[in-house]
Amino acid sequence: MSAISRDQVAHLANLARIEMNDRELDHMAAELDVIVEAVRSVSEAPIQDVPPTSHPIAMSNVLRDDVVEDGLTSEEALLNAPDAEDGQFKVPAILNED
Predict the structure, then answer these.
(1) Where in the chain does DSSP place strands (E)?
(2) Which of 10, 46, 49, 67 is most buried by its number of CB atoms within 10 A?
(3) What does pTM read for this prediction?
(4) Residue 1: is its pLDDT beyond 70?
């Protein structure tokens, strides 16, 4: 027996404001029936001994301790800059402001 009837598909199409002709309704009813059966077969899988997981492979974070280190000085940071002015990177203006 079909899980999804042609009338149910027509009702859903009407709710979704989708126009479907008779051939499309029959085709969609068959397609939805296949989908419902596939979901039903998956729901019947023996999963009593399978623990719930969020990922199929066990994962763990690899973290390291935060270590404070000296950073670059302003001069070192600007050493390879194409243009600098007053200790800052100089870039082309993108706004018509001064």
Answers:
(1) 84-85, 88-89
(2) 10
(3) 0.45
(4) no
Counting every residue, how long is the chain?
Answer: 98
Q: Give the integer Cα–Cα distance in Å for 96 and 16.
A: 49
Q: Residue 25 is inside which H or E element, if any?
A: helix 22-43
Please state, in angstroms and rounded to a whole number, the distance separating the CA atoms of residues 86 and 78: 11
Q: How far apart are CA 34 and CA 20, in angstroms?
A: 19
Whether the Cβ atoms of residue 20 and residue 10 lie closer than 8 Å to each other: yes
pLDDT digit string, tens, across residues 6-64: 999 999 999 999 999 999 999 999 999 999 999 988 888 888 888 888 888 888 888 98
Q: Which two tokens stand for residue 86?
A: 């007053």
Residue in the block written with tokens 């068959």: 30
| Beta-ladder partners of 89 | 84
